[in-house]
Sequence to fold (326 residues):
Amino acid sequence: MVLPLLIVGVSIIVFGLTRIGGSPIGIYLSHEMNAEEVAELEEKFHLNDPVPVQYYYWASGVLTGDLGWSGVAAAPVTDVFPDKLAATMELAVASAIVAVSLGIGLGTFAGARRDRAPDHITRVVAISGAAMPLFWFAILMLIVFWVGLGWFPIGRSDPTIYGRIAHPTGLYTVDALLAGDMGAFRDAIWHLVLPAVTLGYGATAIIARMMRSSLVEELQEDYVDAARAKGLAERLVLRRHARRNALIPTVTVIGLSFGFLLQGTVVAEIIFRWPGLGRWMADSVLRGDQATIMAYVLFTSVLFLFVNLVVDVIYAYLDRRVVLGT
Fold:
C-alpha cells in the first residue's frame, strides 16, 4: 500500500519541479504561430491553470491512457513509448544476464576460495567495477572495441537486416527468433555486446561482492559443518546448501541493480547510439519536453514497485521461513 503512495508522491514532486522550471508550451510552438494560436494551445493543455489543476488533468489523462504529446518525437507519448521501452528493456535484460551470471559465478568462486589468489583477483575486479564511472568505462569500451579493433558495432542493428524481418514485440532478438532468421539474431546479439557488458560490469561487481561475503558467512555456519560430517562432497555442500542461503541477501542487490540498470541506460544509450528510453529522456530534458519526462518518471516508479514484488516472491522461494511466517 505504501509503494503506490510513493509513486503518487514522486509524480507530484517531479511535476511541480518541472512546472517551476518553466511552462512546457515552448515544445509545442512553431515559428508560424501567432499569439491567438499560442493562447489556444495554452488553453488546450490547461497551462493557464494553477499547477495543482494542471497536475489533476495530467493524472486524469494517465488513468485513461493519455500521457501527453512528445515534442521531441512529434507524436503522442503513448505511440512512441512502446518502441523505446522495448529497446531499453532488451538492453537492460541483456545487461542483467551478464551481471547476474558473472556476479553469482565470481562471488561463489571467490567465496569458496577465501583469501586465496582467486578471491583476491575477484575482489580487485569487483572494486574496479564499482569504482569506475559508467560514462568513462563506456567511452573506453567504445574506443578500444569499436574505434580501435572494430570488433563490435554500435547502434541497435544493421538497417539492411532490420528491414527484412517483422517486429511484433519490438525486441530484436525475440523478433529474429520468431522470424527464424538466425542472421538477424546474431546481428542483434552482436549489437548488444558492447552496451550490455558496459552496463552489466558495474552491477557484476556489486553482486559478486555481496555473493562472496554472504557465502563466506554461510560456510562458517554449523549446518555446513554437519553436511560435511555426513560425508557430502564439498561441491554438493557448496551448491545445495551454502550457495542457496547466500543468495537470499544477494537477491535484494540483484533486484535493485536491475532497476538501476534501466536508469544507467541513459548514459549507455547516448554513447552507443541506442534508441531507447534513456536517449529519448536525455533529449527531452534538453528540450524541455515535460510530457516525456513525466512518463519516464512514472515508468521508473512503477518498475521499482514491480521489482520489489519480484524480490519478495524470490525470497519466499529461497527462504521457506518467509512462507511459514517464522
About this structure: The chain has two domains: 2-66, 79-289. The two ends are 23 Å apart (CA to CA).
